[in-house]
Each structure stands twice: as structure tokens, then as C-alpha cells.
Design a protein that fits this description.
seven-stranded mixed sheet, two-stranded antiparallel sheet, 312 residues, 9 strands, Alkaline Phosphatase, subunit A
């Protein structure tokens, strides 16, 4: 958890002694949580999504397997697989880094993807212009629109669409209520607001409200994914780069865990959905990579990652 002890966070703690108690509890819990995380990492075998058979791969960001199983409306059953990582960059490192996938186009809304070498895929498209500064994310409809356009231009390529949802900042009615009620960083990325986990610790937001906002955000991206299946031919797989902790405790006596940036694993973070929607396979072929022609500066990447909560 980078930049956790900021001046702003220290000021909040001095104004609210409850936050000091919670932070002490978190620090005392950390050795137990990390030891358990080490055990989890040593006893799992992760999936290699690039070796699987698919024409379209939809990656949901921070999508929990249990929420997906409850909320998806596909006829096909969802399995559980183990992600190579507990956060997006770790997933990308172990899945993409060092590979050359010249039969694949990668459409991504995740800022971490800018760290990948330019020639990892036939083409990598960073959705720069679609970033919503007001909310601090990229909407799933924009990801599908870019993917559909790429498929029309290069019909003989596999296609990866990496959505930002259900990763915070959330979308949906509950998320709108929270934005109206609390000055939350990660939505507007401005002012002296607080990240949503901090708002829970300050009792401005309840645990159930966060979980409802997460579920509604997942509903939104799943609805967009369903519509996308009518736009793209071929065999489609739906998965996630990692899961998300929503206030669960690793042990009964430890502190609640939020998000996925604490630096340790849990089954909830490593177990992700894997659902395949069969279609007529399309013929794909390798060809020399093309330059995306777009780039994000380091400051812009940093701002976007901050908006997504990775600098807290």
C-alpha cells in the first residue's frame, strides 16, 4: 500500500482517534495476513489464459468469482481458476511479459498495461481519449466500441478486451449516492477527499454500501459484455485478472481487508471466474506488430493509477 502515511491521512487520524486504533490493528494484523498469503501462493497452480482456446477474451478487473457466479446471466456454467496474480500488474507480468502474441490485439482500459513492451501483441490499444475525468475510469461501452472497431479492421486476430469494472471507482445508483454524500478520491481525483476504504473506516460509508456498489458495477459491465457477444464472432472466454477484498477478515481477530493492494494473497484475490461461450471459431494468424501510435506520459499514468486507488 504505497503512500499510505501521507500528511493528509495523518491529519485525518489526528482528528479521528478511531483511525489510529484501526491503523494499529491493521499493522498488528499484517504479519498474520502475510504469512497466510505466503501459504496461499505456495499451494495454488495458476491458469495460463494465453494457452487457452478462445477468439475473444474478456478480462474483468477485480472481479470476484463468488459475485460473478451469483450475478452472471449466461447459460453456460462458470468455473473457478487461479489467477497468476493478486493485482493487475502482477497478472500482466506473469501472463504477458516476455511473450510475443502476434495473433492478438489487446484493448485495455488499465493504466498498468503501458508498462508492457510495445511489441507484446500485434497491436495494443490504450484507451486514452475515453478516460472519464469526472468519475475517474473508462466505461465498459467504450472498451467494446474499440474492440468492435479493431475486429472489423483485423478480423483474423484474437481479441482481448480488458475492462476496468467492477474495479472501483464504481458505477451505478449506489456509487452515485456515495459520490453525492462523501468527497471520495478515485471518483474525481481532486480535492482533499478520501478513498472509499478510508470512508468506511471513518464510518461515512458502510460495508454493505460498498458491497452493493461493487455488485451494481459488476452488473453494469456484465450487461455490456452480454451485448458485446452479438457484435463479435468466435469463441469467447470471460475471466478476471484478480479478485477483490470487500472488508473480509483473513482471521477472526485480524483487521478487515479492502481492495487488493495490501501485498498479500487470499483465495478471494486469487480465485477468478472462467466462463466460455462457444461460437464458430475464426481463423487467426500471426503478423508483424503495428505501433499503437498512442502513449501515456508517466504523470498521466500516475494520475490514473491514483484515481483507481493504487497510490493510497
Amino acid at each position: 500500500m504505497r503512500n499510505h502515511f501521507t500528511i493528509e491521512n495523518c491529519r485525518r487520524a489526528l482528528q479521528n482517534p478511531r483511525l489510529i486504533r484501526r491503523e494499529v490493528h491493521r499493522l498488528l494484523s499484517l504479519p498474520f495476513n502475510k504469512a497466510y498469503g505466503y501459504y496461499v501462493d505456495q499451494n495454488v497452480s495458476s491458469v495460463d489464459v494465453m494457452s487457452k482456446e478462445w477468439d475473444n477474451l474478456f478480462i474483468l478487473d477485480a472481479c470476484r468469482a463468488d459475485y460473478f457466479e451469483t450475478q452472471h446471466r449466461f447459460e453456460e456454467p462458470a468455473e473457478r481458476v487461479i489467477s497468476p496474480g493478486k493485482m493487475s500488474w502482477e497478472f500482466m507480468q506473469k501472463t504477458f511479459l516476455g511473450g510475443q502474441f502476434y495473433d492478438t490485439i489487446y484493448i485495455t482500459s488499465n493504466p498498468f498495461a503501458t508498462r508492457l513492451p510495445e511489441d507484446t501483441f500485434f497491436k495494443t490499444e490504450y484507451l486514452i481519449d475515453e478516460w472519464d475525468n469526472e468519475v475517474g475510469t473508462i466505461h465498459p461501452e467504450d472498451v467494446v466500441a474499440a474492440g468492435t472497431a479493431a475486429h472489423e479492421q483485423y478480423p483474423n486476430k484474437r481479441l482481448i478486451l480488458h475492462f476496468m469494472q467492477p474495479h472501483r471507482p464504481y458505477l451505478g445508483p449506489m456509487a452515485e449516492q456515495l459520490r453525492e454524500r462523501v468527497n471520495l478520491k478515485g471518483y474525481r481525483n481532486q480535492g482533499d477527499g478520501v478513498q472509499i476504504w478510508g470512508a468506511v473506516k471513518e464510518k461515512q460509508v458502510s460495508v454493505n454500501e460498498v458491497r452493493q456498489a461493487y455488485a451494481e458495477s459488476l452488473d453494469i459491465v456484465l450487461s455490456v459484455v452480454e451485448d458485446a457477444l452479438s457484435e463479435l464472432d468466435g469463441k469467447t472466454a470471460i475471466t478476471a485478472d484478480h479478485g477483490e477484498m470487500l472488508g473480509e477478515r483473513v482471521f477472526p481477530f485480524t483487521s478487515r481487508v479492502w481492495g487488493h493492494s495490501e501485498g498479500f494473497s487470499t483465495p478471494t484475490l486469487r480465485e477468478v471466474p472462467w466462463l466460455v461461450v462457444n461460437g464458430d471459431r475464426r481463423e487467426v494468424s500471426d503478423s508483424p506488430p503495428v505501433n499503437s501510435g498512442e502513449d501515456l506520459g508517466e504523470s498521466e499514468v500516475r494520475d490514473r493509477l491514483q484515481a483507481l486507488g493504487y497510490s493510497e
